[in-house]
Specification:
It is a single chain. The chain has one helix spanning 6-10; strands at residues 2-3, 14-17, 25-36, 42-46, 49-50, 55-64, 70-78, 83-85, 91-92, 96-101, 115-118, 121-124, 132-140, 144-154. By secondary structure, the chain is mainly β. The protein is flat and about 55 Å long. The strands form 4 sheets. Strands 3, 4, 6, 8, 9 and 14 form a 6-stranded antiparallel β-sheet that branches. A 4-stranded antiparallel β-sheet has the order 2-7-13-10, with no helix packed on it. It has a two-stranded antiparallel ribbon with strand order 1-5.
Length: 155
């Protein structure tokens, strides 16, 4: 069982402007699970603990508090070894670019193009091979918030 803590929930989030950003942007991460309410509706609830095999949703919120748009925002996220993320699930309320690394963040590519070397042969990377994810966002409008979400399963 995993408990809520920096290594499990946050790893490390590094906001890297691709070009000098003119606006102040803050980043927060929340780990939630989808549950069904007594009324039969779906609701997201914060995760306190998680067990192997449990599906989770990572929600990264980016807030631009300035009166000008934030442009060319980049996030580089080391991925926790105790999780397997679904690379096809990464989505946002705006257009984003997403690339992954399977070699500790040295090289990045789209998941479908990512390969790893194993036993002297090259093979298509699997979600369990991923070590890092890089997200690029063209623009966050002035005084607005966007969210990026992706699914993960505790290994």
């Amino acid at each position: 069982m995993f408990s809520r803590g920096p290594a499990f929930l946050l790893a490390a989030v590094i906001a890297l402007p691709i070009q000098p950003a003119m606006a102040e942007t803050s980043v927060s991460i929340e780990v939630v699970r989808e549950v069904e309410t007594e009324e039969g509706e779906r609701e997201l609830q914060p995760v306190e603990t998680a067990v192997p095999g449990e599906p989770l949703i990572y929600r990264i919120e980016l807030e631009n508090t300035d009166p000008v748009p934030a442009t060319s925002i980049g996030l580089s996220l080391p991925l926790d070894e105790s999780l397997a993320i679904d690379p096809e699930s990464v989505s946002a309320e705006t257009d984003i670019g997403v690339v992954f690394s399977a070699d500790g963040g040295e090289n990045f590519a789209e998941f479908s193009e990512l390969s790893v070397e194993e036993g002297g042969t090259e093979r298509q990377a699997q979600p369990t091979d991923l070590t890092h994810m890089r997200i690029e966002i063209e623009e966050i409008a002035a005084e607005s918030t966007i969210a990026v979400e992706y699914d993960a399963v505790v290994r």
